[in-house]
């Protein structure tokens, strides 16, 4: 009985967290709308690929968050088949989103190393290995859920009895990639000529260390939830994490594009004030 009550409470937390994630994302979009128009859409010299990637990162993610809110709100017309399709859509969308956001984080670190060829090779190999592994684990997790997910008409919600066994491994893979990025940023800061520890801290600040740390902590939190939390809480935490990561990567994209014609350089400030 206590377990059932906890599951119901976690479903309501999922609805609340999904709504909060949507509000935060829309609010941040409104805050950066002017920068988006001036750096992405108004500039005719921008490559179509850059615009497409921004659309995927910003608008595609927003569409997915809206879809999650709709499904988890209790307003959607659901059944077992719809619940199973929802998991596939969420898994595939999350894989695309994760690859996009990590691409921009990787790009940020690449720029901090002055576009060195050796760094490009290291980052490319690491990005391909970690993201490919995470994508495979995400698909396996979705397959595992297909046979156990079901619809409860009383709650008008899709219910997953247990967290897929491969989900913590997927989160651990992404956590490992974030740790790898942070270690590279630290190595880069210490490799540069410096006289004091303050010089190292300044170098880390220029490399957007707070950005890397924020993503790292969010990933760590979701990893812990995927191991010890309830399925609905895990799903809600993932939704919030991906929302915040999308906000960060969108701001990275705007800063990268803006710096191509702005007077400020990379070293003027951190990418995002966390």
How would you describe what is shown here?
With 274 residues, this protein is mostly helical. It has helices spanning 2-31, 33-41, 48-72, 80-112, 117-146, 167-191, 197-206, 209-228, 231-258; strands at residues 150-152, 157-159. The protein has a two-stranded antiparallel sheet.
At a glance:
By secondary structure, the chain is mainly α.
| Main beta sheet | 2 strands, antiparallel
Give the uncertain stretches in residue-range form.
194-201, 261-274
Q: Report how far the terminal alpha carbons are from each other.
A: 41 Å
Number of helices in the DSSP assignment: 9
Strand content: under 5%
Protein name: DUF6533 domain-containing protein
Pfam families: DUF6533
InterPro entries: DUF6533 (IPR045340)
Keywords: Membrane, Transmembrane, Transmembrane helix
List keywords for this structure.
274 residues; mainly alpha; Rhopdopsin 7-helix transmembrane proteins; disordered C terminus; two-stranded antiparallel ribbon
List the topology elements.
Elements: H1 2-31, H2 33-41, H3 48-72, H4 80-112, H5 117-146, E1 150-152, E2 157-159, H6 167-191, H7 197-206, H8 209-228, H9 231-258
Antiparallel strand pairs: 1-2
Protein name: DUF6533 domain-containing protein
Pfam family, one: DUF6533
InterPro entries: DUF6533
């Amino acid at each position: 009985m206590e377990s059932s009550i906890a599951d119901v409470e976690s479903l309501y937390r999922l609805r609340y967290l999904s709504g909060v994630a949507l509000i935060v994302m829309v609010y941040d979009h409104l805050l950066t709308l002017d920068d988006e128009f001036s750096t992405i859409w108004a500039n005719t010299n921008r490559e179509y690929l850059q615009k497409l990637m921004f659309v995927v990162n910003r608008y595609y993610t927003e569409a997915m968050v809206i879809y999650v809110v709709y499904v988890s709100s209790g307003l959607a017309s659901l059944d077992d088949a719809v619940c199973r399709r929802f998991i596939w859509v969420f898994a595939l969308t999350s894989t695309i989103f994760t690859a996009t956001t990590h691409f921009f984080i990787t790009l940020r670190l690449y720029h901090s190393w002055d576009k060195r060829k050796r760094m490009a090779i290291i980052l490319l190999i690491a990005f391909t290995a970690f993201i490919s592994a995470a994508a495979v684990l995400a698909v396996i997790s979705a397959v595992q859920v297909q046979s156990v997910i079901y619809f409860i008409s009383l709650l008008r919600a899709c219910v997953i009895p247990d967290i897929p066994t491969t989900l913590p491994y997927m989160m651990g893979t992404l956590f490992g990639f974030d740790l790898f990025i942070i270690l590279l940023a630290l190595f880069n800061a210490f490799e540069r000529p410096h006289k004091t520890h303050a010089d190292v801290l300044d170098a880390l600040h220029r490399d957007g260390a707070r950005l890397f740390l924020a993503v790292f902590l969010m990933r760590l939190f979701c990893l812990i939830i995927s191991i010890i939390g309830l399925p609905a809480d895990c799903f809600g935490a993932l939704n919030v994490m991906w929302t915040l990561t999308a906000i960060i990567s969108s701001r990275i994209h705007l800063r990268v594009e803006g710096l191509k014609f702005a007077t400020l350089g990379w070293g003027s400030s951190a990418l995002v004030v966390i």
